[in-house]
Amino acid sequence: MALTDVVKRFGAVTAVDHLDLVVPAGVCFGLLGPNGAGKSTTMRLLTGQAVADAGTVEVLGRSMPAESKVVRARSGVVPQVDNLDDELTVAENLGVYARLYGIARADRPAAIARGLELARLADRADTIADELSGGMRRRLLIARGLLHRPELVLLDEPTVGLDPQVRQQLWGQITAVRRDGATVVLTTHYIEEAERLCDEVAIVHRGTVVARGSPDRLIEATVGVEVLEVAGDGPSQRRTLLAAEQAGLPTRHTGTGVAVLGSEALEVAAGDGEGHAGRRRRATLEDVFVTLTGEELT
Ligand SMILES: Nc1ncnc2c1ncn2[C@@H]1O[C@H](COP(=O)(O)OP(=O)(O)OP(=O)(O)O)[C@@H](O)[C@H]1O
Ligand SMILES: [Mg+2]
Question: Whose CA is nearest to atom 16 of ligand 1?
Fold first, then answer.
């Protein structure tokens, strides 16, 4: 899958701005970025729902949007915005897509049954979608996208609104889909989700990729291992900030205080041996993002 110098505009807004991205087959790839960064638009370019103003989009070795019909039959899409048919039952929603995805008539009942299991909605097969809870809708949407065992799975914020247990089940499903050899591309605002699932992530900012790599490598290369968070604005915080400055470590203001990135180097570099008060935690992709862009991931 490759996007090359892709531009997509909506009037005065440039949603995707000369974006280059190559995703190798068989990996789980994550797109991270703040609201409005262009993640969903990028996903829609990959499914042929949106057409680039410039650049080329290649998916499963095919050129988009020219070959979007072939690509759609081989990929499963879970959109950010729920597009279930409210008037149809759970099983009918799956049935419509079984047909759309080109599953042979004789194989559809088994595919639908598998979808109901995946969604854990077997006991709600005859409930109309309008009567499902938010989390059930999400589960149905995801199962619908996996119905035809696609080679490529595109998930736009798949776990929004899911309770922790169901989210973990979905992680299990994604892992299983990958074991079968599929390529998975997902967007998420859950840093933990990206760190757990993704072999590689791209950080998207203002329509373009500002960094990419495995979560561990990105974190270590950009931030270091550890972050020290110091609450309030007392003298101990000022002392820590001074030490960080002397050690050349980046700092940032958080909601309640400041954070020193790469703080594992703090004592050693500052040489004061006194230690610094505060809470130490492992560095995350959120820290990478803030360091690179000066903004929060939201
Ligand atoms: N159909 C559309 N018409 C007009 N503007 C659009 C359309 N789709 C997206 N945009 C604009 O393109 C930009 C990128 O939007 P996009 O939905 O791709 O962001 P995103 O990274 O998915 O954000 P979020 O995290 O909020 O889902 C935004 O400024 C948005 O307003
Ligand atoms: Mg989006």
Answer: 38
Of the bound ligands, which one is closest to the alpha carbon of residue 42? 1
Q: What burial letters (b/e) apply to 5-29, b meaning 16+ CB within 10 Å?
A: ebbbeeeeebbbeebebebeeebbb
Compute how many other C-beta atoms are within 10 angstroms of the C-beta atom of residue 82: 15
pLDDT tens digits for range 83-93: 999 999 999 99
7, 52 contact by CB (below 8 A): yes
Domains and CATH numbers, the chain: 2-216 (3.40.50.300), 224-282 (3.30.70)
Tens of pLDDT, residue by residue over 32-45, are 998 999 999 999 99
3-state secondary structure of 165: helix
Check whether 273 has a pLDDT greater than 70.
no
Q: Which atom of ligand 1 is nearest to the CA of 37?
A: 21
